[in-house]
Amino acid sequence: MTIRLGVIADDFTGATDIAGFLVANGLAAVQINGVPTGALPDTDAVVVSLKSRSIDPAEAVEMSLAALAALQRAGAERILFKYCSTFDSTPSGNIGPVTDALMDALGADLTVICPSLPVNGRTVYQGHLFVGDTLLSESGMRHHPVTPMTDPNLLRVMEAQSTGKAGLVALAVIQQGPDAIRSALDALRADGVRYAVLDTVADTDLTAIGQAVDDLALTTGGSGLGGAVARALTGTTGHDGPAWRPVEGRTVVLSGSCSVRTNEQVADYRDRAPSLTVDVERLVADPEGYRAEVLAWVLEQPASPAPMVYATAGPDAVRRLQEAFGAAEVSEAVESLFGWLARELADAGVRRFVVAGGETSGSVTTALGVDGFHVGPQIAPGVPWVRSLDDTTELALKSGNFGDVDFFTRAQA
Hints:
With 413 residues, the protein is of the alpha/beta class. It has 15 helices and 18 strands.
């Protein structure tokens, strides 16, 4: 079997997000965690999940190029660079540098910028990214503790962190279909544009884009673009995905995201299940003692509904903690706790983890030693169940703003 599509994702939840859309649109997909070091599976699509979104740009570039080389060695026919549908990247961030490096390596003179995911309310109009009916810069993303998004104009954001010129393919062109989009891309290329930002407000726009970009060596965007590319490759309009029987064993919910939606989900689940909030002050003061206390609390809880441990908090609380202990120190302490806790819980027989937050998902997956996943059905758009390649552990890795308010309950159902 030929690898028809190779995906390089800049975080773990982003990887499972796009893998779920690929499976739902007809491609068999396997997710590999970290830069592949051995032979890749024989499947339609391979998604390489990196933890490169918020690290030093030079390190992110090196990691992404290593992932590209592995996909090329395996014969991947096309490459897609996956980032979040809210374009999480400050002016000094990593999307631009990684895009430039991948373009250079592939000999590409133009690529597309397409983060839109209309099913989850992420759309682009006149080059501006919206969350629902709100500009990105006025949404909860403006308070993100790592990548605060204060400019919704993707052309400005892209040019601020990259080496080339950005241009726009407006909605009126997109809605004329694939041929019009191709002509617009050719015109931008002739004008020296390196990054084509695509207006996208509906799934029909994505479908047209998926057909129009079939000759590009590199495409970049969100999981919506991945689904559209899969539809173009398979000629399908989507299906229900593979049959799925859960592994037996306990479930635990771990939430590290501080997004607006995850705050709502945590509040909802607190009323349904045993819940413990992480005491950051105690964690910083006595990491080993506090970790043991949290572990004991989880193991004392009934198996159903699954207990939840959460460090999710509103922007004011996050700001106070960062001012008191340092932003990097707080993040490191919390992610280290979740990784350690997941490993200890797995040793105690927990087999299913519902995890909220990209950084938290990366920490949990790494700590569990899971180097790849089979991708299953979606719990919510962009959030599939995944199972470790050795069939022992299942995870639902949720990006912060994804899922309905009752997501934690739905995942277990």
